[in-house]
Amino acid sequence: MITAEIMGAWLVVLLTLCIFSFLYKDNPFYKAAEHLYVGVSAGYVAVISFWQQIQPNLFGRLWPKLEDTGEVSVLKSVWYSVYEILNFISTGFGTLERSIFPEGGIKGYDEIRLMYLIPFILGIFMLLRLVPKLGWLARWAIAYIVGMAAGLRFYGFLNSDILMQIQSVAIDFTADWGSIINAIILFIGTMTGLIYFFYSTEHKGVVGRLSRIGIYFLMIKFGASFGFAVMGRISLLIGRMNQLKDYSAAEYNYATPIILVFIIISLAIWSFMDGGNKNESTA
Amino acid sequence: MEAIKKIFILLGSLDRRIIFLIVGLSVLIPLLKPDWVNLPIRPTPESQIVFDEINKLKEGDKILLSFEYGPSTKPEIHPMAIAILKHLYAKNIQVYGFALWPDGNFMSTEAFSEVSDDYDKIYGIDYVNLGYKPGQEAVIKGIASDIRTLYTVDLQGTPINDIPMMKDVINIEDFDFVFSLSAGFPGTKEWVQYACDPKNIPLSTGCTSIQVTDIMPYVENNQIRGILAGMPGAAEYESLVERELREMGKPGKPGEASGMMAAQSIAHVVIVLFIIFGNISYYITRKKIRKG
């Protein structure tokens, strides 16, 4: 019997082998899987961002479900009529069921927070980039994001990456010999590495020699990074291979060998035809 | 001698597809025949620190477990998540799952469902999965100041005020430990910068191999307590947890990463050999060209 699990396994194997087929050369299988991956990822992120953040945290704060006290002020009635208009638009002018804007407001918060109109308006400005005449309004939203991110990151970097890392370069001479030697190497590496990136003086004489030592430290770092990168990529390959091995079993209707043979034959035919096309074009 | 030189030159001009095939086989064969290669797994000091730090936690302590990885990096990070959860559950520590990546939701759900039942853990009392919120480092900032500004409901849609274990949790200062399962940005670095350093909360990490050299300075400076480095880190932690569980009388299934380490080691040997052969071939060819 074909279950959802078996279908999932076949899909996993097909897409994995489509991506692996790039190792032979660029081909339609790879392109199809790549486009599917990009599309699904973008769609998933958009949907989840809307339902996890915009709907509960933005709309939920602007139009919360209020306690039913019987009395509703005129201003609140007007405000919630905007909510109903948004609902009318989002339901395709009343043709679909309510989902984004539930009856009476969104559960979660107990009071209206009009402050959140600012991010709401900035969000709309961001989307106006799609309208050529009003695209300039998107700059306001971008300016806010850049300013906020710069301010936020500045503090984090200053504290954790600059101040605390400078502290760690200090040599503790009361520690054991091993730690002192380690700290000295770290100190030399940090200083010479910084000198290498100091461009206000020509790298000649003492500065040149120190920057040369800095290069060696940088090379060791790059070597270590390369080694770890290879290790990471091999781990991912092992993960894929392991799954392909699991799905080659009889309980998955031999998904891996069947799809592998299918892709190899298809690639051979495609390669043959593509070669023919090339010959025709060169002729 | 000439024959050896010719072999090296031939190796240097090998079609890249043959190299891919050999690397693929070096991974596949140990996976198919794990008994052929049996290499011991010895924990590095960094993995041991992570284990010791978590082992120090007491029953009822709260840990924030952040899922910052997706299916693409699952083979490296997921075994760590499973081993960490086993360790935490065995010690009766309350686990609070967060996700900084959208696909972290899948990973956290899978990890919790894989381990929680084996240890009879109840959702909302022993563990909770709060899920993903967009905003990258702003989410970490939010968790550091007030979780409720971002999270009104958990991943299942239950209001967090109705979840028993969320009662006394306001911000990151209510947690005893933070563990970041990280595959990139936002991840471990951001936890250091925006939450754990400013609020002085102990943090450990399990990250992808590619991140290790960037994270190491924080580990050296004790801003992060140990590091599980990629798949080998996961295998080392699995072996430590397995031993601990055996001592506690709660033996479980062997970890996934340990079973994959043979493939990893063989593949590394093959790649190192190719690098050596490639360099020798390069020098021989260059010498030949210079000679004319």
How would you characterize this protein structure?
The complex is a heterodimer of chains A (283) and B (292). Chain A contains eight helices and no strands. In chain A, 71% of the residues lie in helices and 0% in strands. With 283 residues, chain A is an all-alpha fold. Chain A has two domains: 4-162, no CATH class; 166-282, no CATH class. In chain B, strands 3-2-1-4-5-6 form a six-stranded parallel beta sheet, with helices on both faces. Chain B folds into two domains: 2-36 and 260-291; 45-254, MTH777-like (Rossmann fold), CATH 3.40.50.10160. Chain B has helices spanning 2-12, 16-32, 45-56, 74-90, 104-115, 137-145, 188-199, 212-220, 230-248, 256-291, and strands at residues 62-68, 94-99, 127-132, 177-182, 203-207, 227-229. Helix content of chain B is 53%, strand content 11%. The chains are: A mainly alpha (283), B alpha/beta (292). At the A-B interface, helix 2, helix 5 and helix 7 of A face helix 2, helix 4, helix 6, helix 7 and helix 8 of B.
Unreliable stretches of chain B, pLDDT < 50, 5 or more residues? none
Q: Major sheet of chain B: order of its strands?
A: 3-2-1-4-5-6
- CATH homologous group name of the largest domain in chain B: MTH777-like
Order of helices and strands of chain B: HHHEHEHEHEHEHEHH
The percent range for strand residues of chain B is 5-15%
Fraction of helical residues of chain A = over 70%
Tell me the structural class of chain B: alpha/beta
Instruction: Measure the end-to-end span of chain B.
Output: 19 Å
| Radius of gyration over C-alpha positions of chain B, nearest whole angstrom | 23 Å
CATH fold assignment of the largest domain in chain B: Rossmann fold
User: What's the helix count of chain A?
Assistant: 8
Domain tally of chain A: 2
Percent range for β-strand residues of chain A:
under 5%
Shape of chain A: flat
Average pLDDT score of chain A: 91
